[in-house]
User: Fold this.
Amino acid sequence: MAYSDKVLDHYENPRNVGTLDKNDPNVGTGMVGAPACGDVMKLQIKVNDSGIIEDAKFKTYGCGSAIASSSLVTEWLKGKTLDQAAEIKNSAIAEELALPPVKIHCSVLAEDAIKAAVADLKSKQPA
Amino acid sequence: MDLLQRNYFELLAIPAQFNIDLALLDQHYRQLQTEVHPDRFVNASPNERMQSMQVATQVNAAYQTLKNMTARARYLLQLNGVDTLDENNTIMPTDFLMQQMQWREVIEDANTHHDIASLDALLNEVRSIAKSLALELNTQFNLKTYLDASETVRKLSFIDKIISDINHAIETLEN
Assistant:
C-alpha cells in the first residue's frame, strides 16, 4: 500500500521524538495501544504556568501511519491549551495525512493518546 | 447442505469452549476438507459446485480461526455477544503498555547489535507470559467473565504481534 507524501515525510523525519520527565507536575503522559496491529504509542505534553502546551514528545512503535499520526499531533499540540488539545479529532489527523480507511485506527490511537495525556496532566494539577 | 449456517465449532464438530483438542480439530478438518473438496464436484451442477466452493472456504476459515488460540477466544467471545474491540479500544493497563515499549526497545537494540541471544531470551519470556495469559483466559471463560476475557484477548493480540516481530528479527539476523 502506498503511503501519502505527508505520511512519508513524518515517517522519514519524525518531529519531536523523545521523552519528557513523567514525574514533572507540568508533564502529562498518555500511553495507548492498538490490539489490532500491536502498535504502542507514548505521547507526552508539557504545559507552562499559563496552561499552554509548550512542548510535546512522542515515542511510537508501529507502522508508518501510526508514527506519522503521533509526529503530526506533537506539532499541532504546541501552543494549545489543554481544552483545545482535547478537541483534536482523529478525522482531522486522518484527513491531513490522507490516511486510507484501513489506517484510520492509527489516527484514533493518536487522538486517544492526546486524551490520555491531558487526563494524566489534569489529574496531577490542583483543581 | 446446511453447513453454511453452522458456526465454526459446529462445522468442525468441536465443543464450543476455549480449551479444545487440537488433534481432534485437525482430524475433523481433514475429513471435512476431503468431503467438500471442489474436485469432488466437477460433475455436479453449477449450483452444487458453487455451494461446495463456499463450504470449502468456510471450512478453511473455521479451521484457521479455531487453530489459533487468540482468534479462537475472540470468536468464542463473539458467539457470546462480546466484541473484543481490537480496532477501537486503545486503553490498556499502563504497566502492560510500558512492558510492550520495553520489549520493542530490546528488539531495536538487538537489531542494532546483531544480538540473537537476547532475542531468544525475550522470545522465551514473552512465550511464558502468553502461556499464563492462556491459563487466565481459560479461567475467565469458565467463570463466564467475558469482559475480563475480552481484555485478556486484547493483551494476547499484542503478545502475538511481538512474538511474530521477534521471530522475524531473528530470521533477518540469521540470514
